[in-house]
């Protein structure tokens, strides 16, 4: 019987963060079995790890991610949850992951009595959104161009998969989000976006975000590590933050699952580092 763990990522409280399923030993599982487990777990993603050999304290592993609807190329919160879950059982250290989106490294360490996972994303890049596509997105979000913050141009950011990046002028606009699920779902399928990363800048390095996730069958994600990495690449490439910087993203507050994602940006780097903690969710399922 497959052991399925449940963790909340980017929080120290099981009632916060983004829940993820974690299978630390996925040897022999078929695609259909992994999808069925993800559906049974019911979270936005479940990670399936197949650990390989180790060298110089580093463990190599293959990992795949499934939402209840389909496989996802890369998932940041499930990666952090997996790394913390494994570190609790085998001790902190380095994981070198092979994902469908490319190689991803994640390191775990103890800080103030809590395990912290830091993932290094695939290479990040960004591009402007086509104006007509942006208008479609705003229509689905029930926003107008007057709601947008001109300091942060709308882009599509990539760090393993594509994310729409849209900034609003006012925190209240973000808090009142009530979008057209079917319309946004259709547009995101057309554009192959994984989430819409909607944000408000509290200051130059502090942001509040909400992430609709219709491609995964989820109205909203309370913490999105992959989007945080893409967003970090966007901030760096457009020179919207001084370098080096640590960017703090507050996500999930408006849906009652507060999360904190820390994004470290340096010059002359293609990748982005995203850090967070993870808490086990009580009464984890032990079978599927």
TrEMBL record:
The record's listing under InterPro entries reads:
Phenazine_PhzF-like
Q: Where is the signal peptide?
A: none
Question: Which Pfam family, an example, fits this chain?
Answer: PhzC-PhzF
- Give yes or no: UniProt keyword Isomerase: yes
Which keywords describe this protein according to UniProt?
A: Isomerase
UniProt keyword annotation of Isomerase present: yes
One Gene Ontology cellular component annotation? cytoplasm
User: GO: which molecular function terms?
Assistant: isomerase activity
- Active site residues according to the UniProt entry: 45
The record's section on Gene3D superfamilies has: Diaminopimelate Epimerase, Chain A, domain 1 (3.10.310.10)
Q: Please indicate which superkingdom the organism of origin belongs to.
A: Bacteria
Which family would the database say this protein is a member of?
Answer: Belongs to the PhzF family.
Query: Which PANTHER family does UniProt cross-reference here?
Result: BIOSYNTHESIS PROTEIN, PUTATIVE-RELATED, PHENAZINE BIOSYNTHESIS PROTEIN
Q: What is this protein called?
A: Oxidoreductase
